[in-house]
Amino acid sequence: MITLYDCATAPSPRRARILLAEKGVTHETVQLDLRQSEQLGAAFRAINPQCTVPALRTEEGMVLTDNAAITAYLEARYPQPPVLGRTPLEKAEIASWNWRVEFEGLMAIAEALRNSAPAMADRALPGPVGYPQIPELAQRGLARVQQFIETLDQHLAGRDFIAAAQFSIADITAVVALDFARVVRVKPGEQHAHLRRWRDAMAQRPAFAL
Ligand SMILES: N[C@@H](CCC(=O)N[C@@H](CS)C(=O)NCC(=O)O)C(=O)O
Q: Is the pTM of the predicted complex or chain greater than 0.90?
């Protein structure tokens, strides 16, 4: 049986959780308490030396330690329904938008949060090494998150999905990023009608309740 190492309150494992649900993959879940730094303890370090979630143990026993590997594996192992596109051009467009949402959205939120939250002092980056916060990065991160909301709203004008006119991994990443932006007090406003319409439509999919 597949095992997902998860944390109910963190955005990165939510991406894997939603993907497993969209593909209907039966699995076990092990919850880690990041607030108690369980990811840094010896037990989890032996499973994932990078000390991050998600991690996914395949039926063969290999541990995949990031969303990129988890997505590649699940798409290959459970091709239906596809979330990485079917044609070469669809695959390219979806990969491009997934990366943009990671870089311009998720990483910007992390930059804003991790460089300002008192609970994350000396934890400015995830992983086994404790890095100090840089307050200026929090400022820049916040500006980037606000820009990300504008970019996504404009992009979604006349579109039902983030990429390739179909539901894809880019929609999963974007929903997770948008919802997580609340931790730095950024939310779509009345003016972001396209973004709100798309988010409301995504809410119809049961996996997004996870
Ligand atoms: N590359 C990883 C990033 C995972 C990541 O940053 N996970 C965070 C939770 S959202 C984490 O494990 N944080 C542990 C920490 O802050 O020490 C992925 O997307 O799979």
A: yes
Helix axes 169-180, 135-155, angle to 10 degrees: 130
Q: Which atom of ligand 1 sits closest to the CA of residue 65?
A: 20
How do beta strands 27-31 and 63-64 pair?
unpaired
pLDDT tens-digit map of 141-193: 999 999 999 999 999 999 999 999 999 999 999 999 999 999 999 999 999 99
CA–CA separation, 184 vs 145, rounded Å?
Answer: 9
Q: Which of 100, 195, 157 is nearest to 187 (CA)?
A: 195
Cβ–ligand 1 distance for 123 under 6 Å, the answer: yes
Write b or e for each residue in 5-38: b if 16 or more Cβ atoms lie within 10 A of its Cβ, otherwise e: bbbeebbbbbbbbbbbbbbeeebeeeebebeeee
